[in-house]
Amino acid sequence: MVTDNKPSLVTINVDGVEHQVAAGANLVDALAKIGKEVPHYCYHPKLPVAGNCRMCLVELGSPLRDRATNEVILENGKPKIGWQPKPAIACATNVSPGLHVRLESPTVKSCREGVTEMLLLNHPLDCPICDQAGECKLQEFSAEYGRGYSRYLDEKNAKPKKTKLGPRVTLDDERCILCSRCVRFCNDIAKDPVLGFVNRGSYNTLTCFPGRELNNNYSLNTVDICPVGALTSTDFRFKMRVWFLKKTPSICTESSTGVNTTVWSREGKIYRITPRQNDAVNDTWMPDSGRELYKIVEEDNRLTGAILKGTRTSLESALNVADAILHQGGLAIVGSGHLSVEEQFFLAQLAKKTGAKTYMPAHRGQNDGLLISEDRTPNFRGALVTGLTDRNADHDLKTLASDIEAGRVRSLLICREDVTRLGLSAAILAKVRTVVISTHADATTSAAEVVIPGLTVFERSGNFINCQFRLQSFAQAIPGPTGVLPDVMVLARLAKSETTAVWKTLAEQNPALASVAQGLIPSEGIALDGSAWSHLSFCESKLLKFAPQPKA
Amino acid sequence: MAIKVVQRRPLSLAERTYLPQILAGLKVTWDNLRRPPVTLQYPDERPTIPQGYRGVPTLVRDPHGREKCVSCQLCEFVCPPKAIRITPGEISETAENTHVEKAPKEFEINMLRCIYCGLCQEVCPEEAIWLQNQYSMTGRTREEMVNNKAKLYELGGTLPDSHYKWDKKKAEAEKQKHAHH
């Protein structure tokens, strides 16, 4: 029994060299950890093992033991190794003490070459038009283990090239190598078993079950895990070759789950969003709905300049007017869970200095049990940590409305929220002087006196704190519209604070943030202690990697 | 650094008169006057372009009129001065070459940047881009010096094809349409 949390280590021998690896680990993963690549197609660390591609064949052996005494048989002073007569697949092997592996033997090499040649028999020479080119496992391993020409004299199989499996996924059957990753994903992760193989032999074809389609909200993960270019994203199809795209680590803003993402952009244009592995949050998955969020960058109602009383003005003059409004007294602040921790910090500073009451509008949706939580803002916990609020999110702003009606509130700062949907009609907004910081024009911005343009999550950098109280960073992927200042600088100026003050001050309150103050945030984020807020009733229920704290 | 004084020999009489040098020079001039001319009356006369000449890069069609480029963007990637800019596009379902699926929506080569290295031709997997005989590119504005897709096909014309890869693929797909499953 393992009593401590550290995984116990076992010694395995790889090509004559001994290595320490975690006991019981999958051999492919264990070898990857020590820097040895075992080529594979069907194996995926987050999916059940199928063992059907045969690319990961290796030679296995173990020390021989005397049957009578159970002693290790020695040969020239070393344990004698009994090699298995045939190669075995590494993906269906777990490491055991004394396991011997050959990765570079002639047998293993010929196995890989044989599998590669077999997979290429009917594979179309599509690389010039295939979106997977550049990130294709078959392309990579063909370069390593392929022979460079085909000995196949027969005609290649022709299969359907443009099958619409669902609204977002297009299948090219000719490219499919029948690894069944997508089938296993739908069965075991998305719990929506719609994919299967039909026909036999060379006609074996991936398809949806009759009358069904691949339309669940996780369908695009099948595109990510497809080792070849068979499953393609209808949105990204034929748009850009992957080697031109710059990868930026980001966080999905769809819900408080805080799915880790990679934003792929070229020259200031985003082409796609894919999940980034974080075993504590989202494994290697993300919902389809989160992948479309990049489209907000180029929406028609995007705000690209400051507006003062309905006319465009310079950012400088808008900020001066905003400054006067915010410090005239009787201020109320409508914050947002879409602001980063840094932005919320300065908003909290402003609230402290002006004595303003703060509101955090709630955005609620359905929990899908996997990666979309009820709270549809990425950073409500940040408002708690920064002291912007100390209570649950507000479902409406009726208190604020009555405060305005009674004249207790004379000026209003609204960040990234359309308050007209929350009970503050334009008529009520007309009674106060309003400053809005927003990325898109809406009913609130058209009713406001001063509108300051904001940047989307792709155009600024910062941190979010997800429902697990995990602090995660997002980086700037593309430049924002010309002349638009990052929200954090706008808020720091309005709060009359130093932009550098944020992490130093926060680290004084919360020692877990000391490493953030030094600029050290690991890619998997930092788990913070949320016990100080356990008295609040958070709305999130169970997710893939999140379970709500039982009420004390 | 040590200084070495070079001894200069005084000039002889012949050298001082300069006449032998002038005569030698006149002989070179006379020899060249008797040779046939090596220059051309450009632009009235044009040189014959040798095999393998690397002129202006162009896009070509195959003898059946199909545009060969599939916008794989390898030329854009390999181009050292980043002269090539491609916007990929999908071929419509109704087009005759819909089975090729992908073709450039726009294809631009900036001839102010192009260094005529020929790497685009070398890297092209579809043999669609060729540096042909055209060597003279002029324009009054920068925009004129950017060859767009229409101009590139106009310059390129048609070249023979030894594979007909896509035609064969289409024929095979037709043949196997009713194959046993």
Overall strand count of chain A: 26
CATH top level label of the domain at 57-159 in chain B: Alpha Beta
**How far is it from the N-terminal to the C-terminal residue of chain B, by CA?**
89 Å
Q: By helix and strand content of chain B, what is the structural category?
A: alpha+beta
With helices defined by DSSP (H or I, 4 residues minimum), what is the helix count of chain B? Answer: 6
Task: Tell me about this structure.
The complex is a heterodimer of chains A (552) and B (181). Chain A is an alpha+beta fold and 552 residues long. Chain A has 15 helices and 26 strands. In chain A, the strands form seven sheets. Chain A has a seven-stranded mixed β-sheet. The model of chain A has no long low-confidence stretch (mean pLDDT 93). By secondary structure, chain B is an alpha+beta fold. Chain B has a domain at 57-159: Alpha-Beta Plaits (2-Layer Sandwich). Chain B has six helices and five strands; from the N terminus they run H-H-E-H-E-E-H-E-E-H-H. Chain B has helices at residues 13-17, 19-34, 74-78, 119-123, 149-156, 165-175; strands spanning 57-59, 84-90, 102-110, 129-131, 146-147. Chain B has a three-stranded antiparallel β-sheet. In chain B, strands 1-4 form a two-stranded antiparallel sheet. The A-B interface holds A 124-125, 127-129, 133, 155-158, 161-162, 199, 203, 237-241, 243-244 and B 70-74, 76-77, 88-90, 99-102, 125-126, 165, 169, 172-173, 175-177, 179-181.
